Amino acid sequence: MANFYTDNKDLQFTLENLDLAEAVAIKEDNYTKAEKFESAPVDYADALDNFIRVAKVAGEIAGDKIDPRSRIVDEEGPHFENNKVTYHPLTKANLKDLAQADLSGITLPHEYGGLNFPCSVYIMMTEMVSRADGSLQNLFGLQDIAETICDFGNEEQRQQYLPKFASGEYDGSMDLTEPDFGSDLQSVRLRAWQDENGQWYLNGMKRFITNGCAQVHLVLARSEEGTSDGRGLSMFICEACPQLVVRRIENKLGIHGVATCELQYNDVPAQLCGKRRFGLIKYVMSLMNGARVAISAQAVGIAEAAYREAQKYAAEREQFKKSIDKFPAIYDMLSSMKVKLAASRALLYETTRAVDLRNAYNHIAETKENVTPEERAKQKYYNKVAAVLTPMCKALATESANQIAYDAIQIHGGTGYMKDFNVERYYRDARITNIYEGTTQLQVVAAIGGVIQRDNDERIKEFFALPFEGETAKLAAIVKEMYEKQLAAVKFISDKKNAEYHDLMARALVENETYIFVGLLLLRDSLKSAERLPIASRYILDGRFEFEKRYLRIMSDDTLLIENHRSIIDY
C-alpha cells in the first residue's frame, strides 16, 4: 500500500508547520460557517485535522491507484476521431476516484459543495497527483476554472457551474493562446459579438489548449471593435457544443495523458464573465497566477518521483561489488537533487501561504463595509508579496525539476534512456513545466519589478530576526552578506539609466534574490527540525558561489557585456 503523503516526511513537515491560521480564519468567517455547513471546521485545530485527513486520502489515491496506471496512460493516451476526444479508461478511472473522494472542488466554498480549503492544501494535492502522473495534474489542476468563475462571475453563473465542478461532473479549460501570438495575449483576435438580443457569440481559433475538449471553457476574446491591445479583451464562459470544434490534438513530447487541442469557434454561444474590457488586465492575470502556482506544484511532484526513482535504482544497482549509491560521484548527485527538491518545496509553500493571505484580504476588501486601515495595508502587502513570489517559485521549481529529471536518467545510465524505466517519462513530462503558463524568461519579467522595489524585504527581515545560533548563525551570516550585495546590485542597476542592461541582468538579479530568500526559508525550517540543517547548509554553501558569479556579472561594465553578446550572436 503506497501513500504519497505518509511516505513523504518533507510534505508532512510542511503541512504541519505551515502557518495558515490567519488565512483560514478569514476564509471560514471566523469559523461561523460551521454553524451552517457540516464540512466547515470549528477552529484552526479542526481545520488542520481536516487538511491532514484529506491529504492522507489524496496520498492514498495517488500512490495506490493513479501511479500504477500512469505508464499505460502515457503509452496509449487519449483517442481522437471525428473531432471528438475520448480519454483513456484509466484516466477516467483516476478522475472518478478523485471525485468520489470529494477532491474535485477543494477550494470552492461550502455553499457550492466545495471544501473551502486554502490554496496551500489544494496545491499539496496537486503535487501528490503530479508525482503519480504528471499529465493528470493538467486535468485535476483545472479546478482554477471554477475558482475564477467563483471570484468574478455573477451569482447565477456560480449556481450554474460550481456545484457541478465540485461533484466532478464538469471539467474545464482556459482558452487563451492563439496560433500566431503565443504569450502575447494582448494581441488576441478571437472575436466576441452580440446579436440584437444581447446574446454573445465567439468566432476564431485557439491553439495549445490543455483539455480543450472540456465541458466548460473560459475564453479570452476581443469584445471591443477597433481595439488591438489588452484593453479590448473580455472573459467569456462557454460550453461544449457543435459550434465549438476540436480540430486536432497535438502529438507532444510529454504529458501524454491529457489532450492539448486546437479549437475552432463558429458562433459559439457564450456568457460574459465579469466586466467588459477586464479580461486580460484582471481576470486572466488572476487565472494565470493561479495556474503558475499549480505548475510549480506539478514540477515539484515530478521531481519527487524522479528523485525517488534515482535513489531506489542507485541503492539496488551494483558495480564493482557495491551499490552505486556508495560512490561519491553518485551520492553527490543524489544529495544535490534532494536539496533542489527541498528548496523548491519550501518556496512553493511560502508562495501559497502568501497567496492564501492575499486572497483572504482581497475578500475582506471586496465584501466588508468598513475595511480598517490595517486590513487595507495587509491587502496591499500580500498582493505585492504574492506577485513577486509566484514567478520566482515557478522559475525555481520548474528549472529544478528539469535538472532533477536529467540527473535521474544520468544515474540510471543507459537503462534510464529506455522506456522500460519511469525516469524517461519524468524527463519528458518535466520539460513542459518551464514553458507553459509563461516560460522562465517571462517569469523573470514578472518578478524583476518586485525585486527592484524590494517587495520581499519585510519578510526577509523577519527571517534574519529569528534566533539563529551555532551553525545556523554562521549560515545566516553568509546569507546576510549575500543580501547586502544584492541591495548593492539593485542600486547599481537602478542608478544606471540603461534599459537594455537592466533587462540583460534581470535573470541574475531574480536568481540571486531566490538564493537569499530560499536560504532563509531552509534556515527557518532547520530551527524547527535539526535534521533539516544539512539541507540548508548545502543549499547556502553551494548557492554562495552561484550568487557570487551572478553578482560579479551584474557589477561589470555594461557596454562591454552588451557588445559581447551581440558579437557572439553575429559570429
Describe this structure in words.
Strands 3, 4, 5, 6, 7, 8 and 9 form a 7-stranded mixed beta sheet that branches. The model has no long low-confidence stretch (mean pLDDT 95). The chain is α+β, with helices and mostly antiparallel strands. It is globular and about 70 Å long. Helix 15 (471-495) runs parallel beside helix 17. A hairpin with a 2-residue loop joins strand 1 and strand 2 (84-86). It starts with 8 loop residues before the first helix and ends with a helix. It is built from 18 helices and 11 strands. It folds into 4 domains: 1-141, Orthogonal Bundle (Butyryl-Coa Dehydrogenase, subunit A, domain 1), CATH 1.10.540; 172-276, Butyryl-CoA Dehydrogenase, subunit A, domain 2, CATH 2.40.110.10; 278-436, Butyryl-CoA Dehydrogenase, subunit A, domain 3; 456-570, Four Helix Bundle (Hemerythrin (Met), subunit A), CATH 1.20.120.
Question: How would a crystallographer describe the biggest sheet?
Answer: 7 strands, mixed
Distance between the termini: 58 Å
Look at the helices and sheets and give the structural class.
alpha+beta
Which shape, going by the Cα principal axes? Answer: globular
CATH class value of the largest domain: Mainly Alpha
Low-confidence stretches: none
What is the H-and-E element order?
Answer: HHHEEHHHHHEEEEEEEHEEHHHHHHHHH
Number of DSSP E strands: 11
Q: CATH superfamily of the largest domain, called what?
A: Butyryl-CoA Dehydrogenase, subunit A, domain 3
CATH-level-2 architecture of the largest domain: Up-down Bundle
**Discrete helix count:** 18
Number of domains: 4
Helix content: 55-70%
